[in-house]
Amino acid sequence: MVQHYSDTRTSEGRVRFLLDGEAVVLLTEGSGWQQQAQFASIQDAVLGLALLSDVPQPLYAQALDDLYRQLSFFGQLGAA
Amino acid sequence: MTQNTSQMYKSNSSGRNVVPGWMKLNTDKPDAIEIQLDIDASDLQRQQATLLIEYWPAPGELGLQSLLPVRAFTSSPEGWCVFVPAQGQVLVRAIDTQPIPPLLSAHSIILDPATVMGTVVNVSVKFPGETTPVGNIGNLMLNN
C-alpha cells in the first residue's frame, strides 16, 4: 500500500513524499512538468529533490520543512 | 508503482555522493579520476546558485551535462564528486542568477591520459563577495 508521507503545495507546484513498502517515492510537479522517482531511503529522496532544478527554491524549502515536521512527529518512516 | 529506484551512489574512498550519472562515462576506460566539488561555506546560502558540470570526451563532443544546485550541498554533509576517465575535458561552471548582473565563472580541467588511477582532483568554488557599487547612496542623493 502506498502511503502519503508529506504533501506540499505552493503556487509554484507540489512535492510529495510517498512510502511504497521500503521504497520512498518522490513526486514533483509544477506548471507544465511533473517527475516521479523512487529511492531506497528518505535521505536519498531528499538528495534527489535537491538536485531537481525544476523545483523552485521556495517550494523546495517548504517541502523540506513539511517533511521534517512529519519525521519529527511520527519519529520514523512507516510509523504514520 | 513500477518505476526503477534511482540509486544514489557514494565514492568508496571519500564517502562523497556521486552526482547522478557521473560514473563509468566511457565503457572502454575505467574511472581514473575523482573530481571533488566543494563550495565555500559563505556561498551555501545562495539560493539560486548552481554548478553546471560538463564532460567533453573529445573537442566538439559533449558527453554529459549535469546541474548541481548549491542547495544539494546543504542537504548533504558528505559533499559531492564526479568520476571521469583519463581522457577528454571537464568544465565546471558556477552560476548565480540572483544578483544583477548574474555571476558566472568557468573552470576547465584537461584530463591527461597518463593520469594514475585513483587520482583525486579538487574544485573549490567561491563566489565573489558583495561588490561595492561605484559611488554610494550619499552621492546618488546629491543628484536628486
Categorize the overall geometry of chain A. Answer: globular
The number of distinct helices of chain A, counting runs of at least 4 residues, comes to: 2
Lateral arrangement of strands in the main beta sheet of chain A: 1-2-3-4
Number of strands of chain A: 4
- In terms of structural class, how would the helical and strand content of chain A be classed? alpha+beta
The main sheet of chain B comes to: 4 strands, mixed
Quick check: average pLDDT of chain A? Answer: 90
Domains of chain A, number: 1
Order of helices and strands of chain B: EEEEHEEEEH
Question: SSE order of chain A, as H and E?
Answer: EEEEHH
Number of DSSP strands of chain B? Answer: 8
Tell me the strand percentage band of chain A: 35-45%
Number of helices of chain B: 2
Structural class from helices and strands of chain B? mainly beta
The largest sheet of chain B has its strands arranged as 1-5-2-8
Description of the structure:
The complex is a heterodimer of chains A (80) and B (144). With 80 residues, chain A is an alpha+beta fold. Chain A has one domain (2-74): 2-Layer Sandwich (Viral Envelope Glycoprotein, domain 2), CATH 3.30.67. In chain A, 35% of the residues lie in helices and 40% in strands. Chain A is built from two helices and four strands, in the order E-E-E-E-H-H. The model of chain A has no long low-confidence stretch (mean pLDDT 90). With 144 residues, chain B is mainly β. Chain B contains two helices and eight strands; from the N terminus they run E-E-E-E-H-E-E-E-E-H. Chain B has helices at 71-74, 137-142; strands at 17-18, 33-39, 49-56, 64-69, 80-84, 89-96, 103-110, 119-125. A four-stranded mixed β-sheet of chain B has the order 1-5-2-8, with no helix packed on it. Chain B has a four-stranded antiparallel β-sheet with strand order 4-3-6-7. In chain B, strand 3 (49-56) and strand 4 form a beta hairpin. Chain B is globular. The A-B interface holds A 2, 20, 23, 25, 36-40, 44, 46-51, 53, 57, 60, 64 and B 1, 3-8, 17, 19-20, 47-48, 50, 67-69, 71-72, 74-76.
